[in-house]
Design goal:
The structure is a homodimer. Chain A is mostly helical and about 70 residues long. Chain A has a single domain, classed as 434 Repressor (Amino-terminal Domain), CATH 1.10.260. Chain A is built from five helices and no strands. In chain A, α2 crosses α4. The longest helix of chain A is centred in the N-terminal third of the chain and has 18 residues. Chain A is globular. Chains A and B meet through α1, α4 and α5 of A and α1, α4 and α5 of B. Chain A binds a DNA duplex (30 and 30 nucleotides) through α3.
DNA sequence: AGTGGTGTTATCATTTATGATAACCTCATT
DNA sequence: AATGAGGTTATCATAAATGATAACACCACT
């Protein structure tokens, strides 16, 4: 699997998880202490996030970190 | 949980998984196409890895990516 | 038409991960 | 003592993630 595809899948997964909690991008970004634009970029799969960024998101969504990277490979 | 602790846990997890497969750092690094020094740095918890780096490691170890970030939080 | 909420995209500066190399340590073996 | 395997640490350049801001689009509602 290519890096671009991985980023897309991670982004899509974050979006799905966020929406399932009914939170807006701005809200989630605020909880994570970063800008909504950055979250939009991540969800669009246009970045290769660090584990700390994904961890912040997992904490904000109250889910285990492994859930975010749980993609079919 | 702090970022430093997270890095430590991820590094330790990679080390455990690598050793359970009986592979050396140099070997794993070679498969992943990066230098052994970089893997040492990662296992020591002195870097905040990107998801692509962890993905390469998971592929080399033939385990799901989620296994690497499956830490108790 | 205006307002507010949501999301996108571009851009820039700054921080940091990564790639790469070299020097060093420990330990086992010859 | 010498060699080699495994691992560590420091350093440097380069690539890229992040922080931050601004401008824009879309939609619902008044």
């Amino acid at each position: 699997m290519e890096i671009g595809q991985l980023q897309q899948k991670i982004g899509a997964r974050v979006r799905t998880l966020r929406e399932s909690k009914g939170i807006s991008q701005q809200n989630l970004a605020a909880i994570c202490n970063f800008e909504k634009a950055n979250l939009s970029r991540l969800e669009a799969g246009r970045t290769n996030p660090t584990v700390s960024t994904l961890y912040k998101i997992s904490q904000a969504l109250e889910i285990p970190l492994s859930d975010i990277v749980d993609i079919d490979d």
